[in-house]
Amino acid sequence: MNIWMKSASAICLLALAACAQPATQTTQQVIDPYANLGNGAVYQGNLSGGTLGSEATAQYFNSQVGNTVLFAANQTTLTGDARAILARQAGWLKQHGTFSAVVQGHAEETGTREYNLALGARRASAVQEYLVSQGVEAGRIRTLSFGKERPVEVCSDEACYAKNRRAVTVVSETGVGS
């Protein structure tokens, strides 16, 4: 073959290669399994550290049920608002039988130390009796009085005094709370 024949053959091969169909590219199809649910993705696995929306935690009790009831000055009588909160507490405690509670009674800073310790104890007892009357086992509730020793607000006006006249229910999962 001469040089002209080789060149013509090469040009023909290049022309045929240029006319050839490109290879079809296969694209991988991605299917979203949640696309037609209408409510967005639903996570169905376990989460470390608990489950979403769990009501069986002390944090849920404090934030959603309510752990504090307030009293009028020198009083241990439960108000309507206090009874509503305590009814929710009783319902939660009955539903979560592995929890125990300590009811902490507090008083404002006026009065003697001894008087306020006794007043805090009577407030804690009033809360305990109400929870028991709502069906919570008496052995799961303990009372404790701090009197005026642990104020939530430190000041000397009626607004602060009102916040310190309280009983706080502290729940814990193992045994009686601390």
From TrEMBL:
Localization annotation: Cell outer membrane
Membrane topology qualifier: Lipid-anchor
OmpA-like domain segment(s): 58-175
Residues in the signal sequence: 1-20
Family per similarity comment: Belongs to the Pal lipoprotein family.
Keyword Transcription regulation in record: no
Organism in which the protein naturally occurs: Paracoccus fistulariae
Protein name according to UniProt: Peptidoglycan-associated lipoprotein
Subunit field text: The Tol-Pal system is composed of five core proteins: the inner membrane proteins TolA, TolQ and TolR, the periplasmic protein TolB and the outer membrane protein Pal. They form a network linking the inner and outer membranes and the peptidoglycan layer.
Main location: membrane
Phylogenetic classification of the source organism: Bacteria, Pseudomonadati, Pseudomonadota, Alphaproteobacteria, Rhodobacterales
Keywords, sorted A to Z: Cell cycle, Cell division, Cell outer membrane, Lipoprotein, Membrane, Palmitate, Signal
Primary role: Part of the Tol-Pal system, which plays a role in outer membrane invagination during cell division and is important for maintaining outer membrane integrity.
